[in-house]
Specification:
The protein is mainly α and 166 residues long. The chain folds into 2 domains: 50 residues; 103 residues. It has 8 helices and no strands. The termini are far apart.
Amino acid sequence: MAHPKETRDALRRAYIFSSVSLELAAAQCGVSFATAGRWKKDAKENGDDWDVVRSANMLASGAPEDVARSILASLMTQFQATLEKVNSANDIPAQERVTLLASLTDGYSKAIAASKKILPETSQLATSMETMKLFATFIQEHYPQHLTAFVEVLEAFGPILEKNYG
């Protein structure tokens, strides 16, 4: 199904200037994620790198605090999308799921730590995320029989951390 040029332009604007994920932009514009990805790839091959333009727009859009908040919001969206994919993959064993979640948490914690100087309010969230990572490692090493229950509780607890500190 061919889409009008206006749809492609709307998708590009949503991705670049509204800083939404490509998945969300595709959904908003009524196209599949595969189509959105193909359009983004084709544009890059023709000299229009949406990611470069998006980054430049973020940097030019205001104060460092605004840029940092925008980047953190984008990371939080990616974190949530990845977390949902891990949660919905029923074929991942509990131990591997904990490892994936710990890795995801580690990356997120590093991003939060890097933004602490610009956004001091992220310190509480970084501390909470680091605590959850340490706790996951502790359970994996000392109480592996409880990994499945821990993953279930951690998945339910994540939104509470986000609500209180995110």
